[in-house]
Amino acid sequence: MTDLLESKPASRFSIVDRTYTKQSRRTAFLLVIVALLLVIGLGAMLSASSVVSIRASSGQFQLFTKQVAWVVLGLVALVVASVVPYRTWHRLALPIYVATVFLLLLTLIVGATRGGATRWIVIGPFTIQAAEFAKFAALSLLAAAITKKDALLDNFWHVFVPVTVILGTVSALLLAQPDFGNIVLITLPAFAMLAASTVPMRFVFGLGSMGSLLLVIFAMSADYRKARLLSFLNPFDAPQGAGLQAVQSMVALGTGGLFGVGLGQSRARWSWLPNAHTDFIFAIIGEETGFAGALMVIVLFAFLAIVGVSIAYHARDRYGRLLAIGIVAWLTIQALVNIGGVVAVLPITGVPLPFISNGGNAMLVNLFAVGVLININRSTPASPQSGS
Amino acid sequence: MVRRRIWNRGDLRLLIVGLVFALAWAGIGYRLFNLQGSRAVALATVGFDQRISEQPIPAVRGTVYDRDGVELAMTIDGWNVVVDPMMLDDPAATALVLAPFADVGLAELTTEFVEAQSKGRRYAEVAMRVDSAHRDAIRAAIRSYNDANDPDIVGVFYREQPLRVYPTGDIAAQVIGLTAYDDGSGIEGLERTFNSELQGRPGKLIVEHDPSGRVIPQGQVLLEPATPGSDIVTTIDREIQFTVEQGLRKAIQKTNAIGGSIVVMDPETGAILAMASWPSLDLNDRSQVSPEVLRNRAVADVYEPGSTLKALTVAAAIDQGIVTKDTPIDTPKSVTVGDYEYEDIGRNPAWMSVADVVKRSSNVGTIEIERRLGKELHYDYLTAFGLGAPAGLDLAGERHGQLNPVSRWNETSGSSIAIGYAVGTTPLQMAAVYSAIANDGVYTEPYLVSEVIHPDGTRITAKPRTRRVISVETAVIMREILGRVVSAEDGTGRRARMTDFTAGGKTGSTNKFDVDLQRYTDETMASFIGMAPLNDPKIVIAVVLDTPTGSLEDGADLANGGASAAPVFAEVAQIVLHQLGIAPDKL
User: Fold this and answer.
1) What's the pLDDT at B371?
2) CA gyration radius, chain A
3) B142 and B171 belong to one structural domain
4) Which of A125, A381, B175, B416 is 20 to 30 Å apart from A194, CA to CA?
5) Contact A345 B31 (CB under 8 A)
């Protein structure tokens, strides 16, 4: 953030000067992408949530106002994370992980159960969804572990044990809730992180196949999940049943056409599309702003991935690189899984769209992760601020 | 640089991960274009079809007026009050508030709500077809409950339900008729025959709705307004109708008849001023409805007119110049035609003038006159006077009586028909026959609806068809003859005499034919059909009583029209003539 605001420091080294410029461009680019996504998200929220808010007779702006508050809180977290050296997270990786595991355990004990799942700890007006924090904690610890095992990565057990323990513990606790979506959103980015690391590819594929197998077994273990996952293949077979959301989501997108029905003109939000303001907000964007608007969101997420990979590429150390690619993979995969479900090429998993969907914890953690990315970027070797 | 050496292996893999992400987004983008570009119209159609619904807008049914513009039947705003039981927090409390206004009692209403809730039903009836005042009372009760209690009662809905009301209640019930309970279309009387004029054309409201059927406020709305129905103006005079119904009711009581009807007709125009039928009902009370009370006996009861038809036979013979009113006719005690012996009731001289044949209602004399007339001519006059065909009222349930074509007449047909047997007529048809005599020989088709007023204000006025059936001279002579029936001391119709007006008419009493037993019974149809004032008749009244029994103080048998129906004529005609403002012609 400060990179943007400060004027270019006078430097005698042109090479440093140029690197520094590229570096701040990455930060600026990242911030612009996130800012645009936030604006689009709040706009879509305003439309999509108004019907739910009106029907809950709590005022048209009730959900929207809450979301704005979370965005503000998230931006504070972003600024803080961009200032706190990321090595702090490296040092504290294990305690943070242990803390989130504790939170996940606590959730199972005292958590609130909604719709058959125990995912939230409710404290007064606030709800804490430990899974959101667990994503960062698990990816951070995994990055730290791979960094630590650098010399031993050719040894299967030195890879297998930390990976299975770190991901297994969290997954087991999420399974108990159950929260299939977040298991996917932790294990897939972890796999991406391993793929982008120096861990031998055979191990990556081995672990990947194992993980995939477990995910498939788990996915098929509950009838409702199985039905939901399989219905995406032919949603029109059961437009009133398992295929309902996929069908209504495609209908909303089709209604939007190329240029949309206009802001605030969505019909799907009138209860036709369940969860319009959360998991299916992308469909509302597609309906109101058409292919043009929806494509813009996709392009922004694609740029987010490119900038993120670029930051990882330029990271000054192994942990920084791994954490950066982990964060990028997490945000990207979460967005892909969400939008993939909305456009009905992936099963519907019920994960929110980063920066856009309604949901406070996710917004806070996502923006915090962007702050960490910025700090990793600021700490690249060429940066005059990180060298000392 | 150093960095390069350390990360060499990882760099490529990092970039591959980045590339995979980029490709994934490209794939999503392609899919998105597929949905929002090529498949957009098909998908949008699915959405449109599921959102769109057509709500019919009922057309306001036209009003039925009497001839002075008083509403006989009209449609007012009404409501069905229903609840969505699933929206009720406290079914028992809600039932307690609504019960005083509900169609059922408290216990039943509570059970209904609780049961509906347990079964997940979204609909329960509270009060159906109530007027706006009733609805407002329910609203007020809920409001005052909600002011004092928490949680509020929600989930009570008021659906528009136009109400057909009959402000005059039981006046002209069978003439006006009824509308169906469900779709409001006319099922009886004028409501039925003029249904297409009255009903109008329903409009429709096309709206977008959500899955539970609630209208999406910002959705497209297409309104095709309803066209209200046309109003109809009847020829019924509410006050005369009232007089006639009172008279009929009194007559029924006095004569112990099981039913009866009275038709009042304006002979000059053919307008039906009143048409009463007993038993009757209050149209506003559906519990009274039955086929028996809805039957408009004035047009639906086919009976043998008996002696009242003798006037037609005699008029035909005079009109043809075959007899005059003074032509002597032999009147033996009986006459045999074919294998059937016709007799006269009471004692008559050996011969009588044609006028006296009518006055004394001699069967034998009339049969002789008919013999001279001949059956072909007889038949021509019968049809000219409208027998055997509907009178043209377009009234639901109207029957055209029964008159066999002359080719199928047997030996006795002409004789029987001459005295009003072997022919079926309705009271209305007989009123029309006498109207032709009253109207100087011009038959005028009776009619009930004088005007249809379209919603745009244009009017269609009825133009009754007329035809001359007898000459003016014949008509004048016939009135003189019929006048003697009433005015002569030995006339069968002397009880039809009024204090203020002269009158002419003819009595009739026929034994009812029992279809099951295939023979005539002792029960009679007693009638009197008359006109007044005699010189320039303003009204023709037909009184028909079904099975009167008992006798008058002087011993006259009420089974005879002269004893039972003639007094009703006198009573009703006198009041009606005064109501019409006709100057008395008797000093």
Assistant:
1) 93
2) 21
3) no
4) A381
5) yes
Q: How far is B6 from chain A (nearest CA, A)?
A: 9
Same domain, B399 and B428: yes
Confidence band of A19 (pLDDT split at 50, 70, 90): low
- In a shared domain, residues B498 and B556: yes
Bigger pLDDT: A19 vs A298: A298
- Residue from the list B14, B31, B47 with its beta carbon closest to the beta carbon of A312: B14
Q: Pick from A250, A257, A309: which is nearest to B17 by CB?
A: A309
Helix, strand, or coil (residue B126): strand
Chain B residue numbers touching A299 (CB-CB < 8 A) = 25, 29
- Percentage helix, strand, coil, to 5, in chain A? 70, 5, 25
Contact A198 B41 (CB under 8 A): no
B13/A197 CB distance under 8 A: yes
Average pLDDT over residues B150-179: 87
Q: Please list every residue in chain A whose beta carbon sits closer than 8 Å to the beta carbon of residue B3.
A: 381
Identify which of A250, A302, A345 has the shortest CB distance to residue B43: A250
CA distance A321 to chain B (A): 9
Domain that holds residue B132: 79-106+125-146
Indicate which CATH number applies to the domain containing B221: 3.90.1310.10
Q: Quick one: pLDDT at residue B554?
A: 84
What's the structural domain count of chain B? 3
Residue in this structure with the two tokens 């809950």, named with its chain if needed: A56
E strand segments, B396-439: none
Residues B68, B85 within the same domain: no
* pLDDT of residue B227 exceeding 80: yes
| CB count in 10 Å sphere of residue A108 | 15
pLDDT at B159: 87
My answer on whether B139 and B188 are in the same domain is: no
Question: Is B31 among the domain residues?
Answer: no
pLDDT tens readout for residues B311-333: 999 999 999 999 999 999 999 98
Gap between the Cα atoms of B18 and B292, Å rounded: 90
CA angle B510, B511, B516 (to 5 degrees): 135
ipTM comes to: 0.89
What integer is the mean pLDDT of B136-149? 92
Whether residue A268 and residue B17 make contact (CB cut-off 8 A), yes or no, is no
Q: Do residue B215 and residue B311 come from a single domain? A: no
Decide if A267 and B219 are in contact by the 8 Å CB cutoff.
Answer: yes
